[in-house]
């Protein structure tokens, strides 16, 4: 199966495609630019334009077999199957998700504990850690996170087989979200180089190309969520 456009080039802001199916009030496209909600990252929004019409893309979810399903507002006119459309991504929102998502990967480096949950927004995100006691020095954590960002490390991907992942379960940091499976291979997001790797974990989301693009961040509240869980929020400074 060909990789969708949002994975091949997360910086692409518009692209043509053909409507291949209708389902659940939305459309499936031949080459989806819009990321479908999953792994704590929201679905993309934007517009679809075609000869004689256009519609808002209010959300993107996973349809059958994991295909991206672009949802229009209730009652909106959908382009017929076979129609050539142009996808226009809400880029500022997507780029915020990319910056926050990459920052959360780095947060899991400065807090090397199992992750029990998480959520990504356009200007902030959070991870829930299996952390019975709150960290003693919140300022030191924030400084360590910003130091990693400022190194302007490259962000790339590697692929391994599902069998290789099963043989190395330590790659999986999240306790609540299983890595995407079903194709025989698993995508790993790498921060750093092969010789100087800072982080490597399974992930299907979109990320910035270098950590410097995240910009400075602040740690928000560190909240107690249950007997052994602490929620740590990261906010983009600009």
Architecture blueprint of SSEs:
Blueprint: H1 5-8, E1 14-23, E2 26-29, E3 46-50, E4 53-57, E5 59-62, E6 68-71, E7 84-89, H2 91-110, E8 115-120, E9 124-130, H3 138-150, E10 155-161, H4 162-167, E11 185-192, E12 197-202, E13 217-224, E14 229-236
Helix pairs in contact: 2-3
Question: Could you characterize what this model shows?
Answer:
The protein is built from four helices and 14 strands. The protein has 238 residues and is of the alpha+beta class. It has a seven-stranded antiparallel sheet with strand order 4-3-7-1-2-6-5, with no helix packed on it. Helix 2 (91-110) crosses helix 3 (138-150). The longest helix has 20 residues, at 91-110. It is globular, with a radius of gyration of 19 Å. It starts with a helix and ends with a strand. The mean pLDDT is 91.
In summary, what is this structure?
The protein is an alpha+beta fold and 238 residues long.
Number of strands: 14
* Termini Cα gap: 38 Å
Structural category is alpha+beta
Fraction of residues in H or I helices: 10-25%
Calculate the mean pLDDT score and round it.
Answer: 91
Q: What is Rg?
A: 19 Å
What sort of overall outline do the alpha carbons produce when their principal axes are compared? globular
How many helices?
Answer: 4
Query: What strand line-up does the widest sheet have?
Result: 4-3-7-1-2-6-5
Q: DSSP strand (E) fraction?
A: 35-45%
Q: Tell me about the largest β-sheet.
A: 7 strands, antiparallel
Low-confidence stretches: none
Order of helices and strands: HEEEEEEEHEEHEHEEEE
GO biological process, one term: alanyl-tRNA aminoacylation
Keywords: Hydrolase, Metal-binding, Zinc
GO molecular function: alanine-tRNA ligase activity; aminoacyl-tRNA deacylase activity; ATP binding; metal ion binding; nucleic acid binding
InterPro entries: Ala-tRNA-synth_IIc_core, Alanyl-tRNA_Editing_Enzymes, Thr/Ala-tRNA-synth_IIc_edit, Transl_B-barrel_sf, tRNA_SAD
